[in-house]
Amino acid sequence: MSTGTRPREKPRLAAITALSLGCSAAFAARTEPPALPSGAYDDLPPALWWTLGALSLLLVVALVFAATLVLRLKRRTQALKASESRLNAILDSVDAHIYIKDRDLKYRYVNRKLCDYLGLRPAELIGRRDQDLLDGPHLAQTRQNDIRVIDGGERVAGEEQAIGKRGRAEIFFSIKIPLRDAQGDIDSLCGISTDITQHKAAQQTAHRLAFYDPLTDLPNRRLLIERMELALEAVRRSGLFGAVLLIDLDNFKRVNDARGRTAGDTMLRDTARRLAGATPPSAMVARIGGDEFAILLERLGHTAEEGARKAVDIAEQVRTALEQSLYIEGHTVFSGGSIGLTLLRPDGKTAEDVLREAGTAMHRSKEAGRNRVGFFEASMQAGMEERLTLERDLAVAIGTDQLSMHIQPQFDHLRRPVGAELLIRWNHPTKGPISPGRFIPIAEETSVIQRIGDWVLQQACQTLLLLDAAGQTFPLSINVSPRQFHQPDFTSRVRDILRESGAPPDRLVFEVTEGVLIEDTQGAIDRMTELHELGIRFSVDDFGTGYSNLTCLKRFPLYELKIDKSFLYDIPCDADNSAIIKLILAMAKQLRLKVVAEGVEQHEQAQFLIRHGCDSMQGYLFAKPMPIEQWLACSAPQPAAAAS
Hints:
By secondary structure, the protein is α/β, with parallel strands linked by helices. 50% of the residues lie in helices and 21% in strands.
């Protein structure tokens, strides 16, 4: 049966195979299948027919699969393009700057918001860096953040600033993350920066409304309390005392009632300006309500006395500034202020406690007559008032017979006068003689020392002329305070006084402390060189009590060293002091400096000094300070034999 059907199957299989091949070719060539000639393939073996049929079928399936794959790829490509288009539309609609930068920090992608901000098209941004597009000091921070992401793989979030096409600085909150390639290496960063300029401005506005007085633009009570709590904590940690001043304007209510609210507001604004001008830059000036102001002072001193002294000085400056007349709406107005002062101590008090103390002190000053400073601690109040009284009286005493100069000679080993020091004395009209140890520190803390310094130099010039007339030509020493020495016009004032007096400058010796030499070394060298060129000589007073060294001394145009009297105690019995004095004398000899020992009161001290080559001595053993007239009247001491 199979042999009977085989001849009939050959043409059918051949037809199927030919059709498949023709369809395949037609599909591939997109043409009509070729016509089959009759009996073309009748002689082929049956196995070959089956093989060709299977291959044809596989080819058809492969072509169909390929066509399907191509179609799917085409659809996927279209979908990807559509997805990319939708993603770009989304990124362009986001109200933030979105970008990608490569490892060289060049832009690889930017959204429309960033293009609009810079006023450039995407093609103009791609491949360029921030420094090619932006300007300003804020670029360094942006670059630093970018490098942290690219090099360190960090996720960086924080505020950045930039200047766009509008030309004003704007604030952005930026989040930047690293992007990695297939191998896990960082090849770029992605960032999104949101403009928060208006938000920050709103925050600042809210902060000012909450913590600042809108009339005077000063901190209000709330901010003052916060700062005071921090200051009290700092006092407890460091031990440095601070202070609070509470000020109440004495005549504000009268001015406000008589001239109206506008005049009152003008007075308050002017008070704020005066307080700011009368206090250190580090101080906090606040308006805490009505016509009350407060001043917070920090880090005034390591002791209560030092802190109180500095606080009182500032309080007096404030009081003086407030008592000046004010011109409002064509009228001259006088105000003044009652000031209460209390210290910030490491005693556990709160800010409210301190304000209550300052308020109590302020009410005391009002009760005492207004326009004055009141201290919360009663014991300090008395000391403060005495100090202020001395300061005012000292300013009045300059140029009167209350102040005078005494002379204390300096003697060599033969008890011959070889020099002298002028010392200032104050005979108060009601308190009697006041020690320089009391009034000189007060003068040095204020501008009074400059007036006293000029007066002392004038007296020294007159004394030199008197000594010349008496045939005594030894040099004369005067003390120069650090504050006086550092005044910008000090050299010119010295030059003017010397020219007016006609005194010989080469017989004037300015005694300065070691602190002057090390506080501003180059400035001191320049100042001393200028004065040295005039003929002035210099002595280092109280030598050995400061921090100067041999290298330091070599740089200055010095004439002599004065050994401090503290080193003379118990010599030659005290081995340490004896060794120090020997060392100073040996060093001075090497530097070719003269040495004066002050405070010599015992023969044993003088003998030790003479034995080790001290040039001259000054102290009660030889002569006490005396009025210049008395010294001239008794003339110079006669030469005597050297001390044995």
